[in-house]
């Protein structure tokens, strides 16, 4: 039964860590008898280590031995140490006085070692064995009493009291006795001693057994048969030059190498002086490694020796002369170690894959190295090829840990191939390598990245619903679900105006759609924020701004502002008959709600009562006399001006206006102190005054109707996005001015007096050369007559106001 060795206080001492922080300072010791049955109890290892069975399971306890063989096993449920298989002490430890099986109890989480030593106790399971079953001695009949005839001692593989304790002769004979003992610790002898003189004539031959008996219980014995042949006188036995020969041979010496030569001499002459040599090896050598020349005594190798199998070989050489006398010497062959074994690396634990956010110092692998050579040839050093992210750290004895030393990044390196090289200190050194392939598993540490910092997309107004206008694209450096990107519209800041709800983005491919038709005149551009989010936990996201620009289509026809094109009769422009070619009659003012070239307006005279009398400026819309007025020309003329934009296809509008030709308009005067020159002149003056009053009244009525129409149509104009408010009129006119359709605003002052002999109109230069950024100013036209009538016209942002003074 197994017996645990206890500390003086009968409790196993769990010492504090000394030089090795991961290992127990004092080993846990047990003993077990060899040949114990499998499953036999060796000791309560968990209890002696201060652990509980659940802790052993939780910390993945396992036993590690240097030679990799598992003679013992740990029972997980109870924490007991049991025999795993047959234990043969002689096979494990040969003739060593003590046989110890060292191993380590390895625990994980955290890493911890317990050194355990199990001593295998010897039992008497081997019988003594003689090298030869039969031994023949040829002894001269005149041999002296007390003559010694050496025998080869028997060998018992057991030790201590189970080894050979005594020799005896059976059956007992009065002629011989046995003498045995030890000259030194390793030099034992067995001699056959002549106790009574031999008489060949009385008994020429005799036989008996030599029995070797050990001290076991029950005792075991071994037997060899001795045959005695009584010869005539040969009174000198061979003698070796030395009783013990020692030779040193390197383990890599080839077959046939001479180890040494033994030499024996015999003083006899003739046949009695001729010697022959024979060799016997120690018990257990089934495959002899040595051969002796029977004539010369030269010992040679029959095969190369192996230091790792046996460091010494003990040989027995017998020299026998022709008369049958013999002598024995011992030959000790010491095998010299040669660096012929490369280091061996055994992996105890290995973790792969490894998360990329693994902390520095994490143990990736635990392994042990050993070298079967001795001395410097067995000293091992380990090195790691790449020590940028990993390094080797000695753990305990010949154990090493492969640990991380810096942060890992799967996106930079997804797999590390680490080569660990173990080299001994031999000359030349031998090396062995082991490759650890460490896969790095992904962690969601990279947010999606858009391929552009911002996106600008274009769509033409009046688009079809759900039209594709572009796509956003983001990539994620992670893998798997951590790299799966989905797109969505991100809500803007609460302080900002909400973005257009007409935009949608496909969550899978990032395609951007416009859901409904857009109107350039309502919405010229808008911005939305698109968010790209991965499927990691927690998800990471990135945002990008998408600017949607609406492109103008020519979908708005020009709108004539002046002259007003309502249901009331068109106002008449007064033209003096004395006016010359190029005389400015009026200006057609029109705007277009579109932009760019779609709002570039051109003016053309479409129809006129007298087409050759009038011309219209293509760019400005100014209506001028094309030639001087003649008497054949009609007094009243009707004109139709075509206003066309520059779109494709172009849209147009028409403006109808009329012109009155007045004769001597500038010379019409009223009488003052002097009487009229003649009756015809008074009649003409009266007619002119009546006409002027009529025209003024007509102008007032027309203006009032125009104002009323404008007020009624203000809502319609706003719905059509042609707004002429305080801000919209300014921006609309500014666009028209920029496009060249409304280059200037004019203010004219007209003075009429009845006493003038000639017609006179004064057209002043434009007061406003361009449209400024300040609010729209009123334009005022004043008509003054000598009879005290002033008519003032003011244009306001929302209506037209007439002032009469």
Automatic annotation (TrEMBL):
<feature type="signal peptide">
    <location>
        <begin position="1"/>
        <end position="25"/>
    </location>
</feature>
<dbReference type="GO" id="GO:0007156">
    <property type="term" value="P:homophilic cell adhesion via plasma membrane adhesion molecules"/>
</dbReference>
<keyword id="KW-0732">Signal</keyword>
<dbReference type="GO" id="GO:0005509">
    <property type="term" value="F:calcium ion binding"/>
</dbReference>
<dbReference type="Pfam" id="PF00028">
    <property type="entry name" value="Cadherin"/>
</dbReference>
<dbReference type="InterPro" id="IPR002126">
    <property type="entry name" value="Cadherin-like_dom"/>
</dbReference>
<keyword id="KW-1133">Transmembrane helix</keyword>
<feature type="domain" description="Cadherin">
    <location>
        <begin position="451"/>
        <end position="560"/>
    </location>
</feature>
<protein>
    <recommendedName>
        <fullName>Cadherin domain-containing protein</fullName>
    </recommendedName>
</protein>
<dbReference type="Pfam" id="PF08266">
    <property type="entry name" value="Cadherin_2"/>
</dbReference>
<keyword id="KW-1003">Cell membrane</keyword>
<dbReference type="InterPro" id="IPR050174">
    <property type="entry name" value="Protocadherin/Cadherin-CA"/>
</dbReference>
<feature type="domain" description="Cadherin">
    <location>
        <begin position="579"/>
        <end position="673"/>
    </location>
</feature>
<feature type="domain" description="Cadherin">
    <location>
        <begin position="241"/>
        <end position="345"/>
    </location>
</feature>
<feature type="domain" description="Cadherin">
    <location>
        <begin position="346"/>
        <end position="450"/>
    </location>
</feature>
<feature type="domain" description="Cadherin">
    <location>
        <begin position="131"/>
        <end position="240"/>
    </location>
</feature>
<feature type="transmembrane region" description="Helical">
    <location>
        <begin position="688"/>
        <end position="708"/>
    </location>
</feature>
<keyword id="KW-0812">Transmembrane</keyword>
<dbReference type="InterPro" id="IPR020894">
    <property type="entry name" value="Cadherin_CS"/>
</dbReference>
<dbReference type="Pfam" id="PF16492">
    <property type="entry name" value="Cadherin_C_2"/>
</dbReference>
<dbReference type="InterPro" id="IPR015919">
    <property type="entry name" value="Cadherin-like_sf"/>
</dbReference>
<dbReference type="InterPro" id="IPR032455">
    <property type="entry name" value="Cadherin_C"/>
</dbReference>
<keyword id="KW-0130">Cell adhesion</keyword>
<keyword id="KW-0472">Membrane</keyword>
<keyword id="KW-0677">Repeat</keyword>
<feature type="domain" description="Cadherin">
    <location>
        <begin position="24"/>
        <end position="130"/>
    </location>
</feature>
<dbReference type="GO" id="GO:0005886">
    <property type="term" value="C:plasma membrane"/>
</dbReference>
<keyword id="KW-0325">Glycoprotein</keyword>
<dbReference type="InterPro" id="IPR013164">
    <property type="entry name" value="Cadherin_N"/>
</dbReference>
<keyword id="KW-0106">Calcium</keyword>
């Amino acid at each position: 039964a197994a017996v645990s060795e206890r500390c003086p206080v009968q409790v196993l001492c769990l010492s504090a860590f000394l030089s090795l922080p991961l290992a127990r300072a004092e080993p846990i010791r047990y003993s077990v008898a060899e040949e114990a049955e499998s499953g036999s109890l060796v000791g309560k290892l968990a209890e002696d280590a201060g652990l509980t069975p659940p802790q052993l399971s939780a910390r993945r306890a396992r036993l590690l031995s240097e030679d990799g063989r598992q003679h013992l096993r740990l029972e997980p449920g109870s924490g007991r140490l049991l025999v795993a298989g047959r234990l043969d002490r002689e096979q494990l430890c040969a003739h060593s006085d003590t046989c110890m099986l060292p191993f380590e109890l390895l625990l994980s989480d955290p890493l911890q070692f317990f050194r355990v030593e199990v001593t295998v106790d010897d039992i008497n399971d081997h019988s003594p064995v003689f090298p030869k079953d039969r031994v023949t001695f040829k002894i001269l009949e005149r041999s002296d009493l007390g003559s010694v005839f050496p025998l080869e001692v028997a060998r018992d593989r057991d030790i201590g009291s189970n080894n050979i304790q005594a020799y005896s002769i059976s059956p007992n004979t009065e002629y011989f006795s046995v003498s045995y003992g030890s000259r030194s610790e390793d030099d034992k002898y067995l001699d056959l001693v002549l106790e009574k003189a031999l008489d060949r004539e009385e008994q020429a031959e005799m036989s008996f057994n030599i029995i070797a008996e050990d001290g076991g219980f029950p005792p075991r014995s071994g037997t060899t048969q001795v045959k005695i042949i009584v010869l005539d006188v040969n009174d000198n036995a061979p003698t070796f030059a030395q009783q013990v020969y020692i030779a040193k041979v390197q383990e890599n010496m080839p077959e046939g190498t001479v180890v040494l030569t033994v030499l024996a001499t015999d003083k006899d002459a003739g046949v009695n002086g001729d010697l022959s040599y024979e060799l016997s090896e120690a018990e257990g050598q089934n495959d002899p490694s040595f051969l002796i020349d029977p004539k010369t005594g030269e010992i040679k190798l029959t095969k190369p020796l192996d230091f790792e199998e046996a460091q010494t070989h003990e040989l027995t050489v017998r020299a026998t002369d022709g008369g049958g006398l013999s002598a024995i010497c011992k030959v000790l062959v010491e095998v010299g170690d040669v660096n012929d074994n490369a280091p061996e690396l055994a992996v105890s634990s290995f973790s792969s894959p490894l998360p990329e956010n693994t902390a520095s110092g994490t143990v990736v692998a635990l392994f042990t190295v050993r070298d079967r050579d001795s001395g410097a040839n067995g000293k091992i050093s380990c090195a790691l090829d790449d020590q940028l992210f990993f390094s080797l750290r000695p753990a305990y004895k010949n154990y090493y840990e492969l640990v991380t030393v810096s942060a890992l990044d799967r996106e930079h390196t997804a797999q590390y191939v680490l080569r660990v090289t173990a080299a001994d200190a031999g000359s030349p050194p031998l090396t062995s390598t082991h490759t650890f392939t460490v896969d790095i598993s992904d962690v969601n540490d990279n947010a999606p990245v858009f391929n552009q910092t911002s996106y600008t997309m274009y769509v033409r107004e009046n688009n079809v619903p759900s039209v594709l206008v572009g796509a956003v694209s983001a990539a994620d450096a992670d893998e798997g679900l951590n790299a799966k990107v989905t797109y969505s519209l991100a809500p803007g800041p609460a302080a900002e105006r909400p973005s257009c709800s007409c935009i949608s983005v496909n969550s899978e491919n990032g395609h951007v759609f416009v859901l409904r038709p857009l109107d350039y005149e309502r919405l010229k551009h808008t911005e939305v924020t698109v968010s790209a989010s991965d499927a990691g936990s927690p998800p990471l996201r990135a945002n990008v701004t998408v600017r949607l620009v609406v492109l103008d289509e020519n979908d708005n026809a020009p709108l004539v502002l002046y002259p007003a094109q309502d249901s009331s009769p068109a106002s008449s422009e007064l033209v003096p008959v004395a006016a010359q070619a190029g005389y400015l009659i009026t200006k057609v003012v029109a705007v277009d709600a579109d932009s760019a070239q779609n709002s570039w307006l051109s003016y053309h005279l479409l129809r006129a009562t007298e087409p050759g009398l009038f011309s219209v400026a293509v760019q400005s819309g100014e209506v001028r006399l094309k030639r001087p007025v003649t008497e054949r020309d009609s007094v009243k003329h009707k004109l139709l001006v075509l206003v066309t934009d520059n779109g494709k296809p172009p849209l147009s509008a028409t403006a109808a206006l009329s012109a009155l030709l007045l004769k001597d308009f500038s010379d019409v005067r009223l009488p003052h102190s002097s009487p009229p020159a003649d009756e015809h002149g008074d009649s003409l003056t009266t007619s002119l005054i009546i006409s002027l009053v009529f025209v003024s009244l007509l102008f007032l009525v027309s203006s009032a109707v125009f104002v009323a129409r404008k007020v009624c149509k203000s809502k319609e104009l706003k719905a059509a996005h042609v707004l002429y408010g305080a801000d919209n009129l300014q921006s609309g006119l500014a666009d028209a001015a920029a496009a060249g359709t409304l280059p200037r605003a004019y203010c004219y002052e007209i003075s009429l007096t009845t006493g003038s002999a000639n017609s006179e109109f004064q057209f002043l230069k434009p007061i406003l050369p361009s449209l400024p950024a300040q609010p729209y100013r009123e334009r005022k036209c004043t008509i003054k007559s000598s009879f005290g009538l002033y008519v003032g016209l003011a244009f306001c942002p929302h209506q037209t106001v007439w002032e009469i003074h």
